[in-house]
# Entry
Amino acid sequence: MYEELASAPSRVIGAKQTVRALERGIVGAVYIARDAEERVVRDLKTLASAKGVPVTQVESMDELGKVCGIDVGAAAAAILHE
# Structure
């Protein structure tokens, strides 16, 4: 399920960075950790829905961080258009 994110040539990590990329219209897919605080990802979910970008739920912030190649958890990440 995460192979596409793990192998993406261009991506952003973190809720704020993902929101910025969505606002710029350059996101192909969004991944959000189930255990992320709702206040952190609420606007992100709303914006992704409004832009028609698919959102995939990931089990945990730790797992999402590992898939993205970082040593800390991540609330969200996104694959960017080429």
Q: What stands out?
A: The beta strands are 11-13, 27-33, 55-58, 76-80. The mean pLDDT is 94. DSSP finds four helices and four strands in the chain. The chain has one domain: 3-80.
